[in-house]
Specification:
The protein has 455 residues and is α/β, with parallel strands linked by helices. It is built from 13 helices and 24 strands. The protein has 3 domains: 145 residues, 3-Layer(bba) Sandwich (Glucose Oxidase, domain 1), CATH 3.50.30.40; 35 residues; 177 residues, Ribonuclease E inhibitor RraA/RraA-like (Glucose Oxidase, domain 1, 3-Layer(bba) Sandwich).
């Protein structure tokens, strides 16, 4: 098999599928928290490894990475940089331009980048742990290249294969690439069959009932359209509709201020939107709690058929970021059934599907590794913890581009009333400013500094 055909086949798979294949083969290749540092395209290629470390002498040195960039002679290379330090840059716009000129496909750093706009401007993909403004000059130097490096606990060799996309980064040992590709393609076909089955109306409990190892078997009847309608038979109650309507004109900052004024803890810390949603998501909480898997493992997703139209699925995975509890099939099915959105104290995967479908997802992050055989459902519609907030079943969830707040159901009307008063005061302040008042005058007149003060 030629290198071009290998890369072509690998390019057809995403990190989620490759991660599943690595799991099946008991290979360690998923590198957590190496994410796109701008809105990067997916990159697929072979690794050129570099190790950096602290500078220990005062002698002048060649700028780190430049010898490796100059040595590249093929168009399949991805630079893989290990040894970065928090707060110090391993990358910048000048070497991004040099790499672009050499035909290098992208850079993956176990560390940080600066001048990220420079990389973005020339559409050069950079994946890593974050961004900084602090130069590596006289702080970090290149200490090795072309030898094995450690990337977030994964050993990466020169000429290994790598795939990086919105969900993260996976590395594939060069000597195992053919079996990973073969298995990944089987998993991909199986997943596509499952998606088609869901679209055809088959209950997701049947579609996703197989265990992880069974997922690579050819589907028996998953691709056949089911006669059952995909419409959700579980409609929202009148009371649910009334409570949701109370927050139809509110956003999370106003509700957060109302919660503060009433002394109610409800702001879900660390739970952020998958993208900058323009609309506010509101709905009653359908709560699920996950725990580590037993032996044999239990179910990961059978609850979804019990979720009503307009509900928000609220999943407590104890803040775990090493395995997911939500992917594209769940997104597809939730959208079909009119579920309002999903909030996870943990991570999700298959984010392209959620973004393209505009399905609201609020999580602690994203990663590609499956939760199958790692976690299982322990409780449904019981109290859970989300971002340090207690959430009871049927509490009201309000979520938008700012984050997520939880309103206790018994106090929903009270919170909504206070939130609306706060919003009206802020509208009044803005009107006064437009009319020529100073911000101090407007705030003083409408009591801005006491809006969220406890009663």
């Amino acid at each position: 098999m030629t290198q071009s055909s290998i890369l072509e086949r690998l390019s057809a798979l995403d990190t989620n599928t490759v991660s599943d294949a690595l799991d099946f083969l008991n290979l360690k290749g998923t590198a957590y928290d190496l994410k796109p540092l701008w809105n990067c395209p997916k990159i697929v290629g072979r690794t050129s490894t570099v190790k950096v470390g602290p500078k220990t002498s005062t002698a002048p040195t060649t700028h780190l990475l430049t010898p490796v960039i100059d040595a590249v002679t093929t168009d399949d290379r991805i630079l893989v940089i290990a040894g970065g330090k928090d707060g110090l840059s391993c990358w910048g716009d000048i070497i991004a331009n040099a790499s672009k000129q050499k035909g290098i496909r992208g850079t993956i750093i176990d560390g940080m980048s600066r001048d990220i706009d420079g990389s973005s401007d020339i559409e050069y993909p950079v994946y890593g742990r974050g961004v900084t403004m602090v130069s590596a000059r006289n702080r970090l130097v290149q200490i090795d290249s072309g030898n094995p490096v450690q990337m977030r606990g994964v050993t990466v060799n020169e000429d290994d294969y790598v795939v990086a996309d919105r969900c993260g980064t996976v590395f594939i040992p060069a000597n195992r690439i053919e079996e990973v590709l073969e298995l990944g393609e089987k998993i991909d076909r199986r997943q596509n069959g499952m998606v088609q089955a869901v679209r055809g109306g088959q209950p997701v409990t049947e579609v996703m009932h197989d265990k992880q190892f069974e997922a690579i078997r050819p589907p028996s009847d998953a691709s056949k359209s089911a006669s059952a309608s995909p419409r959700n038979p579980k409609e929202a109650t009148i009371e649910d509709q009334q409570l949701v309507a109370l927050f139809a004109e509110s956003d999370t900052p106003a509700v957060s201020d109302a919660l503060d004024k009433l002394g109610i803890p409800g702001q879900a810390f660390g739970i952020i939107p998958l993208t900058d949603y323009k609309k506010v998501t509101v709905g009653p909480a359908f709560t699920i709690r996950y725990v580590p898997a037993s032996d044999p493992p239990g179910s990961v997703g059978d609850f979804i058929d019990d979720v009503a139209v307009g509900d928000v699925v609220v999943i407590d995975n104890s803040g775990r970021t090493d395995c997911t509890v939500w992917g594209d099939i769940m997104t597809q099915y939730a959208g079909i059934r009119g579920i309002s959105g999903t909030v996870i104290d943990g991570v999700c995967r298959d984010v392209n599907r959620a973004i393209e479908d505009e399905y609201p997802l609020f999580t602690a992050g994203r990663w590609m590794r499956t939760g199958k055989d790692r976690v299982q459902v322990a409780a449904v519609n019981e109290a859970v913890g989300i971002g340090k907030v207690r959430v009871e079943s049927r509490d009201i969830v309000v979520a938008d581009a700012n984050g997520v707040v939880i309103v206790p159901r018994a106090r929903a009307r009270e919170v909504a009333e206070v939130a609306q008063r706060i919003e009206q005061s802020e509208i009044g302040i803005r009107d006064l400013i437009v009319g020529g008042a100073t911000i101090a005058e407007a705030r003083e007149k409408l009591g801005y500094h006491t809006l969220q003060r406890k009663q």
